[in-house]
Amino acid sequence: MASSAYNERRSQCERGVELIRKHYPEITSLRDINHQMLEKYVRDVDRLVYDRCHYVVSEIQRLQDATEDLMKGDFEQFGKRMFETHEGLKTKYEVSCPELDFLVDFVRKLPDVIGARMMGGGFGGCTINLIRNESLERIVEETLNAYKTQLGLNMKVYRVELEDGTRRIN
After folding, report:
1. Are residues 115 and 69 in the same domain?
2. pTM of the entire structure?
3. pLDDT beyond 50 at 60
4. Residue 76 burial by CB count (10 A; 0-12/13-18/19+): exposed, middle or buried?
5. What average pLDDT does range 146-160 have in this prediction?
6. Residues 60 and 124 both lie in one domain
């Protein structure tokens, strides 16, 4: 990814931090920034930098909220956040591609898909989908067929299952 637009996105986010640091010297990263700071010090200076930073600041909060959703077992809300993340990656961070957007948009209409988003560094790759078990095979088949019909491409499917993985120890 060193030769890709990844470095460009990183540089744009660093520029946003620099713009805000002029007013808040203690700021060291986007984790220290809120939306009000972006609105006041970045939006009117550089709209593209604003969009990049806005996505990251929103995603930091979305990740924290999604962690709580999972701890409560609220997969519906978690799934909504997955769709929101993809939308931000598509429109604000601009690292998606037509194939990934097709996959997310296609499954978004299916009631047994709880959430979906692109994953990885962007500019191609995979989507991750949260699907109700009883509908998995049907949705995989529908998606494979639609992808082939609409894009003329074959798609690979990697099935994963949730396990009793890591958890917070209080």
Report:
1. no
2. 0.88
3. yes
4. exposed
5. 94
6. no
- Does residue 92 sit within a domain? no
What does DSSP assign to residue 148? H
What is the share, in percent, of the chain residues with pLDDT greater than 90?
A: 85
Residues in CB range of 62: below 8 A, 6 or more apart: 81, 84, 85
- Do residues 2 and 59 share a domain? yes
pLDDT value, residue 2:
43
Same domain, 61 and 103: no
* Residue 44 CB burial class (10 angstroms; 0-12, 13-18, ≥19): exposed
Give the domain extent around 47.
1-73
User: Smallest Cα–Cα separation from 31: which of 45, 47, 20?
Assistant: 20
Which CATH number covers residue 119?
Answer: 3.30.70.3170
Burial class (CB in 10 A: 0-12, 13-18, 19+), 75: middle
Query: Residue 125 belongs to what H/E stretch?
Result: none
Q: What is the pLDDT of residues 85-122, one digit of tens each?
A: 999 999 999 999 999 999 999 999 999 999 999 998 77
Which residue, 53, 47, 48, 46, is CA-closest to 32?
53
Contact 41, 19 (CB under 8 A): yes
